[in-house]
Task: inverse folding
């Protein structure tokens, strides 16, 4: 009795394990470079582009002044508990925040810098008030 699957006719459907190519044959691997053929997956250099380069435009992100205002506002908020350093940083943060609000970009950073610097001013004034209230009691 013969098995029809082992003896196939040309054009008949194959069953079982596929036939494997010799692994030493370079054409056995997908994407392999075969000498003398055009490599389709990675084409070579085709020369300069026929289109002109895209124009360089200014980014729409916040400017350097807005970032500086935000950094100084954060520093003022952090150092607001130090009596004079916090107040000085807060004043600088307020000035930079106001200058930032006059520019078309970075208004959110400027508003945040103003809020943080304003809180630093309130904290600094409260600390100074408490120090001056405490000094007469400490000397008595």
Result:
């Amino acid at each position: 009795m013969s098995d029809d699957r082992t003896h196939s006719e040309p054009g008949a459907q194959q069953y079982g394990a596929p036939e494997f190519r010799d692994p030493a044959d370079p054409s056995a691997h997908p994407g392999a470079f075969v000498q003398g053929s055009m490599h389709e997956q990675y084409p070579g250099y085709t020369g300069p582009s026929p289109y002109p380069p895209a124009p360089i435009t200014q980014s729409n992100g916040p400017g350097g002044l807005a970032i500086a205002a935000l950094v100084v506002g954060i520093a003022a908020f952090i150092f607001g508990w130090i009596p004079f350093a916090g107040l000085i940083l807060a004043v600088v943060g307020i000035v930079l925040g106001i200058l930032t609000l006059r520019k078309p970009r970075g208004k959110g950073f400027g508003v945040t810098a103003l809020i943080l610097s304003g809180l630093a001013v309130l904290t600094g004034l409260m600390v100074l008030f408490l120090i001056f209230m405490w000094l007469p009691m400490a000397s008595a």
In short: Helices lie at 64-78, 83-101, 107-139.
